[in-house]
Write a structure and sequence with these properties.
The chain has 18 helices and no strands. It is mainly α and about 475 residues long. The protein folds into 2 domains: about 210 residues, no CATH class; about 260 residues, no CATH class. The termini are far apart.
Length: about 475
């Protein structure tokens, strides 16, 4: 897993150049076009996005193939990672089509197809990776990384074809109307995509610097290289994906809220845009905080039983807190993008990456792995605080701290404390983990209802049901 984690920044860098800005632009323009009734522009937005993605992907693939030895041997420090790095290319190509389709759907508020795709893809990925690792039984880290990437590619085959087919059904639900100028549409897309892509590249370069240099900083703490790379794999490729798992459910909130705000703002309905923003923040706190911390206790058992590595409770607690702020960071960025503040959103995220890098560089030789853990937490807190401050100060948004943060924190503390007592009572194994999750879930549902929350109304506020959408389309 250490080798896979070492080469993963290459994947992130190619995606940030070829895809991230285009996806955001496609999302934003689809929402804007649907809001003003320009439905005929929707397929052309997608086609322009695909053309830009394919061109940028081919450019990045050519650079990667030409300089593969230098990248693997000099930058990553392991020439054996070369083959796995190249295997990422077909996975990225399929991911591009999938994500472009998803962002059109998010812009049109058709969230069900992306959610289904994401859930099935994750299940297929786990099965494919597990089956390949079991069948091949790789003996070296580079071979294991190749098996993991092959499993990822298999899961992307399903999701890319499913989302392409689903997008066709979404387009057919909209009426036809007159075209507008394609040049203006392409220019609008580039104006949104360019600053986002540049910021994403800078952010991913920071992430790559952190990943590549973390083993070296751990060696200054006194670890040998093998131990340092193994720790990188345990934290970044095992524990962090586990604790960040709730973000796969929170992600659609940030993807849905931006187009909703864009649509309301385009129609001059600023009060509705503010209401959607507030509901998104409340919904994030209600779901993200309890869900992230509910994984701490069973996470220790999963890490030891599935991956064969014991991880301390306090490490997972810090990762859980980092995941919570990552969720708020994602949603606040989505709100800013919805208001057309892409530069501010990307700038805040970039500052968070710089803080993470600085703390990792300075603290890791003194504190070991805790240096990068605390750096990651601070790197998620900073852009969240800056985004909320900007929403309150510049956009005059009434941020609901009570319902979005303090009340969910109280609910989460009660669930965690009672769940931990059950975990200690039943034992720190399978039975204790299952018992703590079930008890915590029951306490959560009880406290949510007693606190006056209505989760279904939050969902309906942000994501209208398909039936109502069809009625609206017919009226337009």
């Amino acid at each position: 897993m250490g080798t896979y984690t070492l080469i993963s920044p290459i994947y992130s860098l190619v995606v940030s150049v070829a895809l991230s800005g285009i996806c955001m632009a496609v999302n934003h323009l689809s929402a804007e076009s649907a809001a003003i009734g320009d439905y005929d522009a929707l397929p052309r937005i997608f086609r322009i996005g695909v053309a830009l993605f394919v061109g940028l992907f081919l450019l990045m693939a050519a650079l990667l193939l030409c300089f593969q030895n230098d990248i693997a041997g000099i930058i990553l420090g392991d020439i054996r990672a070369k083959r796995a790095m190249i295997l990422f290319l077909p996975c990225i190509f399929l991911t591009g089509f999938e994500n472009l389709c998803k962002n059109v759907c998010y812009g049109l508020r058709e969230v069900r197809y992306p959610v289904i795709s994401e859930l099935v893809e994750q299940a297929l990925r786990m099965m494919a990776v597990g089956t390949i690792l079991w069948g091949v039984a790789p003996q070296t880290p580079d071979k294991a990384a190749e098996c993991i990437i092959l499993g990822m590619t298999i899961s992307e085959v399903f999701s890319s074809f499913y989302m392409t087919h689903s997008l066709g059904k979404v387009y057919h639900a909209f009426p036809k109307n007159e075209k507008r100028e394609g040049k203006r549409l392409g220019t609008s897309l580039l104006k949104i995509a360019l600053p986002v892509s540049l910021s994403a590249v800078a952010g991913n370069l920071l992430g790559a610097v952190i990943t590549v240099n973390l083993p070296k900083r751990l060696m200054l703490y006194g670890w040998d290289r093998m131990e340092a790379v193994a720790s990188l794999g345990v934290i970044n490729a095992m524990a962090m994906p586990l604790m960040y798992l709730p973000l796969t459910l929170i992600g659609p909130i940030s993807s849905a809220v931006g187009p909703k705000i864009t649509g309301s703002d385009a129609l001059g309905n600023h009060a509705d845009a503010a209401r959607k923003s507030v509901k998104a923040l409340e919904m994030t706190g209600l779901f993200a905080i309890p869900m992230c911390f509910s994984l701490v206790l069973p996470g220790m058992y999963v890490m030891e039983w599935v991956f064969g590595h014991a991880v301390k409770e306090e490490v997972l607690l810090v990762l859980g807190a980092s995941a919570v702020f990552a969720a708020f960071q994602s949603v606040t960025s989505g709100i800013l993008v919805g208001y057309g503040r892409q530069k501010e959103a990307m700038g805040f995220n970039l500052l968070g990456g710089c803080l993470h890098l600085g703390m990792m560089w300075y603290l890791t030789p003194k504190m070991g792995i805790w240096g990068t853990l605390l750096g990651g937490l601070a790197g998620n807190i900073l852009p969240t605080v800056l985004s909320i401050g900007f929403l309150r100060g510049k956009l005059s948004l009434a941020v609901p701290f009570g319902k979005a943060i303090w009340r969910p924190c109280y609910i989460s503390f009660c669930c965690y404390a009672i769940g931990r007592a059950v975990w200690l009572l039943l034992g720190k194994g399978f039975l204790g983990s299952i018992g703590s999750v079930l008890i915590s879930a029951g306490i959560y549902l009880l406290l949510v209802r007693m606190s006056g929350y209505n989760p279904s109304r939050y969902i309906q506020t942000l994501i209208p049901v398909a039936k109502q959408q069809k009625i609206n389309h017919g009226q337009n």
